[in-house]
Amino acid sequence: MSDRLLINLAILGGTGKEGQGLAYRLAKAGYPILLGSRTPDKASRVAAELNQRLGQDSIRGLGNEEAAGRCHIAILTVPYAAHRSTVQALKGHLAGKVLVDVTVPLMPPDVTTVHVPEAGSAAQEAQQILGPTTQVVAAFQNVSHGHLLEDHPVHCDVLVCGGDDEARQQVLQLVAAIGLVGWDAGPIENAVVVEGLSAVLIGINKRYKMHAAGIRITGDQPPR
Amino acid sequence: MSDRLLINLAILGGTGKEGQGLAYRLAKAGYPILLGSRTPDKASRVAAELNQRLGQDSIRGLGNEEAAGRCHIAILTVPYAAHRSTVQALKGHLAGKVLVDVTVPLMPPDVTTVHVPEAGSAAQEAQQILGPTTQVVAAFQNVSHGHLLEDHPVHCDVLVCGGDDEARQQVLQLVAAIGLVGWDAGPIENAVVVEGLSAVLIGINKRYKMHAAGIRITGDQPPR
To answer: What are the beta bridge partners of residue A160?
Structure first.
């Protein structure tokens, strides 16, 4: 557990529901969290609320730039409309780091149809902007924030894609730390599937009146 | 059961493993099957083998064109390299029908990286070629043929995408008939996810030494 204290995780654009959910689970797992927002006041307020719920003081609210600058691993949870501008603005702070991109390229109002960005996926778009000194890893898109902010077990596996083996393994470690089952889902080109699955799952939620559809990998393993 | 006898299903390019698996399961469910191949002799031989295994005589081997011409619903199971030419050749026989496209746009030798065709997906490519008189539905790509050719329950859900509501519902009925759980996964634009998942699952099979990884939709439903 103590090793986790050495790794500062930033959640950039972290005051939204998905960001809060990941901050809550990762703080509970023992990581210090830098919760970033364009408005530092809002970040501080949300951090205080989460800290109170956790009964600890491990989440700190900051501006996105300061959070990105001080972290070892950054997690990006912004709406797709803010994706490109946020990544561009934080580029200098992310050099030499791993960026976990949770962004889903939804195109409201029709959020149940898969939209494929020109770069192939949001994660590839981020990788193009950031260049080779930042390792972008796509993960966590399919896990409903509703699950993350509760304390029950999450019945949704996490597919992890990215161009760098070591970065993928690091992210798989974060997934395991918060009690989820992660899968190495291959190169960053596969992010189109992981991101697009979110639109498919939103559609399934609507059509079948479910709240937080997810996926699980099945196979010749013992059933969980 | 008797209604099923009225619906002729063609499995085009059906002598491969996935085609055989679907023919086996659908024949067992009571549907008459027209098993199509470029080489009618091969289709007849494979049909005879499957009939013997089934202890019934409901699969008939034919050329692809004859099978497509005589069927009510066609299922296409060809390697991606043969996709465009097969769809073009059968276009006239598929007008007014539903085509279930099982094709995965894999680009050997790297079959663990998602490849997105120019049309968006193999299913959209087929829809473009066939025009609006044929309803293309993407389905069954993620179910391992190993599962289909065995008699055990299949632990893999089937995501069904397509532009026409009624066609999607018909295909969901076929999925249920062979004992699988199907999900209406929305418009044909979502086929990129369903097709791409196959490459992700092949990668997971390799990395985790599994044989037939699949997916299951989870959510606020009773666990299965």
So the answer is: A184
